[in-house]
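Pilot study result, target chain (199 residues):
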Amino acid sequence: MLDGITSLDGRLAVWIATHRYAPANDVFVWLGWIDKLGAVWMVLAAVISFRLRRRATPALATTVLTALTTLAADTVALGVKDLVHRTRPFVTHPQIHPLYAVHSSSFPSGHAATAFAGAILLSYLAPRSAPLFVALASAISFSRVYVGVHYPIDVAAGAAIGAAVGSLAVLLLWLGRRHAGWSIEHLAHRGAQVILRNG
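Predicted structure:
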């Protein structure tokens, strides 16, 4: 059973990476670049804050919360990588020519983890834009297979890690709002007080 899944995973990775549409190559490379350490989600958090007309301090709190969430997802993914040590698909399958070089192990995808962590959190903060966030996270995740640096299962596992971390962040924020009266504005105010007190 496991061997069959692994074999299918490898065949899918090879087929996708060897059936590229050349004009789209730069787009998929760019998708990986913008998600480095969750950068795109921090930018989107700042944009959301601007559109919601939040003041500077709450806007910064939203951005920092997003950064911490994506960083947590990336940290978990890196921890699993260190345990699993799965070889990259372009090493196992020489017919795959990656669009850029990577050197860490393959399972799970850190980009998929940060993408879905960011998408889940921002979907909670700006529900009307949720389909766009999920679409972007999905595109970033698929790009990892397209450029030849991950297997589909790597991406699925990374997405699951990201969704779990993002959901935990949402749960903590929801519980704080429900039981302790937290809000982004409240967190920002409390954070500013701490900084001023210790500054």
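One observation from the pilot: The two ends are 59 Å apart (CA to CA). A full batch analysis is planned for the follow-on phase.
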